[in-house]
């Protein structure tokens, strides 16, 4: 994958995976190992805050019913539209994704200025949002569906809601799997997952030592 940009940036790992599989857990582990963690899903929420041009574009496309009286996006109302209409979802993504890419680039510049040797961009729509092609390594965080359901139940999600959320992300594994450099299986213990993450990071950086702008990151000793 290409690292060509208009500035020298850290080695970039793209992190994605279906809901309940632990991509945020893996991102936190990488953060403790020295990564600058960029949450693209959080940036997508920021991109639709009042004052952002993106919000006006959403209102123009989907109507005033998706904006609350206080001027903030009614995410529930918008979700009810796009989750049942693939064309509407595509329109929403065409509005939001370009702004998210800009915000990710800004975060990468901050990481570069801070001297961070590697960064992680975490996104459920890593491939669809055009972020995967910017990454040097793409990791798919995955686990069996039965474990997904168990984890979602511990979050207080009903079985029906869990099934709907999982069904809405059915293509994540296929699209991300086709682009993934590595697959991180999180079905075991947290300690087993941490070991897999450390091994994957060591392998990724070992292959990138010559291009890292700030030198290699040492693998932590257990």
SSE blueprint:
Blueprint: E1 11-16, H1 23-32, E2 36-39, H2 40-46, H3 53-62, H4 75-82, H5 86-113, E3 118-122, E4 137-142, H6 145-154, H7 159-168, H8 172-179, E5 182-185, H9 190-206
Parallel strand pairs: 1-3, 1-4, 2-3, 4-5
Helix pairs in contact: 3-5, 6-7
Describe the structure.
The chain is an alpha/beta fold. It has nine helices and five strands. It has helices spanning 23-32, 40-46, 53-62, 75-82, 86-113, 145-154, 159-168, 172-179, 190-206, and strands at 11-16, 36-39, 118-122, 137-142, 182-185. Strands 2-3-1-4-5 form a five-stranded parallel β-sheet, with helices on both faces. Helix 3 (53-62) packs antiparallel against helix 5 and helix 6 (145-154) crosses helix 7. The protein is globular, with a radius of gyration of 18 Å. The two termini are 31 Å apart. Mean pLDDT is 87; it is low at 1-6 and 210-222.
């Amino acid at each position: 994958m290409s690292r060509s940009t208009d500035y020298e940036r850290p080695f970039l790992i793209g992190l994605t995976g279906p809901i309940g599989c632990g991509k945020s857990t893996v991102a936190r582990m990488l953060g403790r190992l020295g990564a600058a963690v960029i949450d693209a899903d959080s940036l997508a929420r920021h991109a639709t805050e009042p004052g952002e041009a993106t919000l006006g574009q959403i209102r123009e496309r989907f109507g005033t019913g998706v904006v609350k009286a206080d001027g903030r996006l009614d995410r529930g109302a918008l979700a009810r539209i796009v989750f049942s209409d693939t064309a509407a979802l595509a329109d929403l993504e065409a509005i939001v994704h370009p702004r998210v890419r800009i915000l990710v680039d800004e975060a990468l510049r901050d990481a570069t200025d801070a001297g961070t040797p590697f960064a992680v961009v975490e996104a459920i729509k890593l491939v669809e949002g055009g972020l995967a092609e910017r990454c040097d390594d793409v990791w798919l965080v995955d686990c069996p569906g039965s474990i997904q359901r168990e984890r979602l139940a511990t979050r207080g999600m009903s079985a029906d809601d869990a099934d709907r959320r999982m069904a809405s992300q059915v293509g994540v594994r296929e699209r991300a799997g086709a682009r993934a450099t590595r697959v991180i299986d999180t079905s075991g213990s947290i300690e087993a997952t941490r070991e897999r993450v450390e091994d994957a990071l060591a392998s990724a950086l070992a292959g990138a030592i010559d291009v890292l702008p700030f030198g290699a990151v040492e693998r932590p000793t257990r």
